[in-house]
Design a protein that fits this description.
By secondary structure, the chain is of the alpha+beta class. It has a single domain, classed as Sandwich (Jelly Rolls), CATH 2.60.120.620. It has 3 helices and 11 strands, in the order αβαββαββββββββ. A hairpin with an 8-residue loop joins strand 7 and strand 8. Helix 1 crosses helix 3 and helix 2 crosses helix 3. The chain is globular. The protein starts with 13 loop residues before the first helix and ends in a 13-residue tail after the last strand. Pfam families: 2OG-FeII_Oxy_3 (PF13640). It comes from Kaistia nematophila.
Length: about 220
């Protein structure tokens, strides 16, 4: 089934998107190349480089809402959240919306919105093993990582290591963060870590969420 047949943007490859969603359905994660148009990858990389040069990034924290804190022993990176104020950001957010619709059609997840940030790891930067969403929290349901560094090689470090399940003896998959490579994963089901980078490493990280609003509490991003 062509889940993305109604997509209205040329910034991604529909057939690659369909294959990615099928992989997500089968395994809980997928790794694909060439989902996004190379021009969009270059634009994202250029925008992040400009933000980094201007000092617009902030140290990344761990935890959610009131429990957020900076913890250098767990994570060393800097981020800036998307606010949709630039053409490049809007292009990616448009793609994310088309993917949200397609994932919901295939997996019936009720994804409601999308949040994402630019992320820069310095030399020596890393992120210890974690889940993007605690079991049952439902604040993040599907995660996406988009890599931006052209010419990245395995010996540069910064490898993304995925565990195929949360079981202790789960198999692992190691992903070299080459420009244009994208990882989708179920946020509650796939533990992962970023191994130390031997040179600066750049990406976009994003999450599709469900609407967790109640009569007593308004759901907000981040």
């Amino acid at each position: 089934m062509n889940e993305l047949v109604e997509a209205e943007t040329d910034d991604f490859d529909r057939s690659v998107g369909d294959a990615a969603i099928e992989g997500l359905a089968r395994k809980g994660y997928c790794v694909v190349d060439d989902l996004l148009h190379p021009d969009l990858i270059r634009s994202l990389a250029g925008e992040l480089a400009g933000l980094e040069a201007s000092g617009a990034l902030a140290a990344a924290a761990v935890g959610r809402e009131g429990g957020r804190r900076q913890a250098a022993e767990i994570r060393r990176a800097a981020i800036r959240w998307f606010d949709g104020s630039t053409t490049t950001e809007r292009r990616l957010l448009d793609v994310a919306e088309q993917l949200r619709i397609a994932i919901n059609r295939r997996l019936f997840l009720g994804l409601f919105d999308f949040e994402c940030n630019f992320i820069a790891y310095p030399t020596g930067g890393f992120y210890g093993r974690h889940l993007d969403s605690l079991s049952g929290a439902r604040n993040r349901v599907v995660s996406m990582v988009i890599y931006l560094d052209a010419g990245w090689q395995a010996n540069y470090g910064g490898i993304l290591r995925l565990w195929e399940t949360t079981e202790e003896d789960a198999g692992t998959v190691e992903v070299v963060p080459q420009a244009g490579r994208i990882v989708l994963m179920m946020s509650e089901e796939i533990p992962h870590e970023v191994l130390p980078a031997h040179r600066p490493r750049h990406a976009v990280a994003g999450w599709w969420r469900v609407n967790a609003s109640t009569g007593q509490r308004l759901d907000t991003s981040r």
